[in-house]
Amino acid sequence: MTSKLTLRTCTLENILELQDISVKTMVDTFGKDNTEEDMKEYVDSALNLTQLEKELKNPDSEFYFADFEGKLAGYLKVNKKEAQTETHDPNGLEIHRIYILPEFKRRGIGKFLINHAEKIAREAGCGSMWLGVWERNFGALEFYKNMGFVQTGSHEFLLGTDRQTDLIMTKALQ
């Protein structure tokens, strides 16, 4: 199946494409469980062009697009060093965002992107990879467990005005 999958680096030239897939996948993943107002507030603050440009220009953050049969299917954002949103392991790699468009789910794209993140982490000499996942995102939790992540903590995440709990999941790298 991976022969149908390709990876490309997302740059400032792709910012509109990045914003579009970011908003679509965020709303698809969390829209049904949150108010329209909270979703709009989050999207307007975290996924606006100014914020995405800042993230794209950060040398310790990297964005990648996954294309399935030539069509944009999902994306990955990883953070190293100071770009990490929290420091669970100063020598760790944070998987900050990993999202797949609904029509491309269950095609191995998530695994493809996690494997790419692990390759980045190993090449950078990172001791672990970690991410935060909403405690009510049961499908994602199961996926990360199957990929070798274990829960190592939790933190609060503000989606609009709603305080939610993200579980911190970590995968040690030998």
Description:
- The chain has 174 residues and is an alpha+beta fold.
- The protein has one domain: Gcn5-related N-acetyltransferase (GNAT) (Aminopeptidase), CATH 3.40.630.
- Helices cover 34% and strands 34% of the residues.
- The chain contains five helices and seven strands; from the N terminus they run E-H-H-H-E-E-E-H-E-H-E-E.
- The chain has helices at 15-30, 36-46, 49-57, 109-123, 138-146, and strands at 5-9, 61-68, 71-80, 92-100, 128-134, 150-159, 162-172.
- A seven-stranded mixed sheet has the order 1-2-3-4-5-7-6, sandwiched between helices.
- The protein is globular and about 45 Å long.
- The two termini are 27 Å apart.
- 29% of the residues are buried.
How many strands, what sense, and barrel or not for the largest sheet?
A: 7 strands, mixed
In CATH, the architecture is 3-Layer(aba) Sandwich
Which of globular, elongated, flat, extended, rod-shaped describes the shape? globular
Number of domains as seen in the coordinates: 1
Q: What would CATH call the homologous superfamily?
A: Gcn5-related N-acetyltransferase (GNAT)
Radius of gyration, in Å, reads 15 Å
CATH topology heading = Aminopeptidase
Q: What percent of residues adopt helix (DSSP H or I)? A: 25-40%
Unreliable stretches (pLDDT < 50, length at least 5) are none
Q: Strand order of the main beta sheet, please? A: 1-2-3-4-5-7-6
| CATH domain class | Alpha Beta
Strand content: 25-35%
Total number of beta strands: 7
Which class best fits the helix and strand makeup? alpha+beta
Q: What is the tally of helical segments? A: 5
Termini gap: 27 Å
The average pLDDT score comes to 93
The ordered H/E elements are EHHHEEEHEHEE
